[in-house]
Amino acid sequence: MSTLKAVRGTRDLLPPETELWNHVEATARRVFGHYNFGEIRTPLFEDTSLFARGVGEETDIVSKEMYTWEDRARAQSEKAQSLTLRPENTAGVVRAYIEHKLGDTGLLQKLFYIGPQFRRERPQKGRYRQFWQIGAEVIGPISAGSESPLRDAEVLEMLATFLNELGIEGWTLEINSVGSATDRPRYIAALREALAPVKHLMCEDNQRRAETNPLRVLDSKDPNDQELINNLPKIADYLDEESKAHFEQVLAALDACGVPYRVNPRLVRGLDYYTRTTFEFTHGGLGAQNALLGGGRYDGLSENIGGPKAPGIGFAMGEDRLILTLQAERQQTATLADYYIAPLSIAQNPAALELARELRRKGLRIEIGDGSFRLKKSFELANKLAKKIILLGEDEASTGILTVKDFATAEQTKVARAEIV
Ligand code: ATP
Ligand code: MG
């Protein structure tokens, strides 16, 4: 029989690596908590049309990366339905916002999520078919201040703080404004005009994008097309006064709190309901997959999926890529137990478990002996797994005095059982 393996593009996460994952997630929960965010957990699968409308039919995600299936009806009362494993989480959060009428509270909703996402991509370093995102959304009625540039700056400052707390250095924040729903058509028209005489010189992908979604040409990484792209019109020159002022206020707030950034006029999001601020944090250590996270404003998204007007701003971080960055910067070793308790005969097994129970209740990390009852082997194993070994033999049982060896100092001492506990 052939052996079964994890599906291509999916991975098992094992200790000690999982400790790093938990550390990253605990740090996110703590830092986001300081900004008064609450956690949201949405289903792993949704109605396919949520993503078609909430992410956009013409995106790579929807057009070629989704895991979609026809879910059969199981009873006459049920209808067959097209379902999709979530490829991202913003659409789910905004659906929940609408479904639970969170806008009726009149308050700004500040929600974060941590969980797996699914995209059928070509697997490579930093790119998987099941991957994890840590993200957040600030969304609410305009009266709650959801459009305020302060929100954008606060989210960016939170991200800078989060990365710094994790000890990730050398990140770059790139930021741009893609303007409002009225700026965009003027810019796209100018882009089409500028592309018309040069697009035949570009790669096939860009020739297609020039027709279907010219904004996407700006995203292109094709090395041969870079110079042509750099000469295309810049969106900054097409922003109306309101969008310009909004962007300037975001940047001024970032300046005030010392968050460094680089304005990148080519950073765009190709969809109509993405508005004003867009941003990306990159990290040089990641190679080709250098984006740690992406985000921006989506003032029209809620209406696009049938909800009330609810401007918002959010981001999604690739947790897998955060972990890769951290692993490159530090060596990870397994956590050692505080004590390895070695029973030296079968008769001591109950006493070993009892002692372990008491020490674990004190919050210590305890490993219990292997049951071989051989001194040499116990020491060898204990030295790999724990900081100290406790020997439990007949002597120890009768006197209540335990033999303890500290591997760091190689010191062996006699300690009363009551003292250890
Ligand atoms: P990329 O250009 O790398 O494909 P994207 O534009 O598809 O990124 P977003 O949809 O903005 O990415 O997702 C936000 C973040 O999620 C990315 O910056 C990245 O860190 C992470 N991410 C996206 N797709 C994957 C994947 N297949 N595997 C691992 N991480 C991913
Ligand atoms: Mg992608």
Description:
Helices cover 36% and strands 23% of the residues. It is built from 15 helices and 16 strands. Helix 2 crosses helix 4. The radius of gyration is 28 Å and the shape is elongated. The chain starts with 16 loop residues before the first helix and ends with a helix. Adenosine-5'-triphosphate binds next to strand 6, strand 10, strand 11 and helix 11.
Separate helix tally? 15
What's the total count of β strands? 16
Share of helix, binned = 25-40%
Spell out which ligands are present: adenosine-5'-triphosphate, magnesium ion
Based on Cα principal axes, name the global outline.
Answer: elongated
> Structural class of the helix and strand makeup?
alpha+beta
Question: What's the quick description here?
Answer:
This protein is an alpha+beta fold and 421 residues long.
Observed structural traits:
421 residues, five-stranded mixed sheet, 36% helix, binds adenosine-5'-triphosphate, binds magnesium ion
